[in-house]
Design goal:
It is a single chain. The protein is of the alpha+beta class. It has a single domain (59-223), classed as Spore Coat Polysaccharide Biosynthesis Protein SpsA, Chain A. It contains six helices and eleven strands. Strands 3, 4, 5, 6, 9, 10 and 11 form a seven-stranded mixed β-sheet that branches. It has a two-stranded parallel sheet with strand order 1-2.
Length: 228
């Protein structure tokens, strides 16, 4: 719904219905007039849903936004401006704050530690402006990120499979970041692109914990060179 106030209006909106038990067409009609629905009869996983949406679009940029977020009116314009300013940026990261406490950060772009673990810069910290500078970072949180379509084309696994569908959900953005970096695409953090995230509003529990643990090791095994 918050996208309706966007200062940037030249975009197509695709909403992925990943096997919901209730009709979402009335909700989309009210919250996002003009939004087009991609319907799956069962839960096929976040990664397949994202790939379907990416395939439907045709713009220079692909912007992903989870349904448990709210954005500032200039969020989308800021992402596009940052991407325009950095032609080697395959992705652009948002400044993500907590929905429950909008003075605190969830992510100012993501990092990858020497221990092989990804993390969110500034997580849980009070936003005192310490992350108000553009900066190259490892990756963007896929819950609110811009990707350059030309960059995604270089990491296509075949048949439009940009995100690895075997991962199903969680760590798919980390895996994509590794592949983009190996193809010489950068990630830039855009502090002016502010979004609020309600943590685990639509996911969580034991199944989520399983996918996080499994996928972390899968990404490590195939991304970090042997001997490191």
């Amino acid at each position: 719904r918050s996208l309706r106030a966007s200062t940037f209006t030249d975009y197509q909106l695709w909403v992925v219905d990943d096997g919901s038990t209730e009709p979402i067409a009335p909700v989309v009609a009210r919250a996002a007039p003009g939004g087009q629905i991609i319907r799956f009869e069962q839960n096929v996983g976040l990664t397949r849903g994202l790939n379907a949406a990416i395939a439907r679009g045709a713009g220079e940029y692909v912007v992903l936004l989870n349904n448990d977020t709210e954005v500032e009116p200039d969020w989308l314009a800021s992402l596009v401006r940052c991407a325009d300013e950095h032609p080697r940026a395959g992705s652009v990261a948002s400044k993500m704050r907590l929905m429950s406490d909008r003075t605190r950060l969830h992510s100012a772009g993501d990092y990858y530690s020497v221990r092989g673990m990804p993390g969110n810069r500034g997580v849980w910290m009070f936003d005192a402006g310490q992350y108000d500078q553009q900066k190259h970072v490892f990756s963007a949180c896929g819950g609110a990120a811009l990707y350059r379509r030309a960059a995604l084309a270089t990491v296509d696994r075949g048949g439009g499979e940009i995100f690895d569908e075997r991962l199903f959900m969680y760590c798919e953005d980390v895996d994509l970041a590794w592949r983009l970096w190996r193809n010489e695409w950068e990630c830039v953090y855009c502090p002016d692109a502010v979004v609020y995230h309600a943590l685990s509003a639509t996911a969580g529990g034991k199944l989520a914990s399983y996918y996080v643990a499994r996928n972390l090791w899968l990404v490590i095994a195939r991304s970090i060179p042997r001997g490191v």
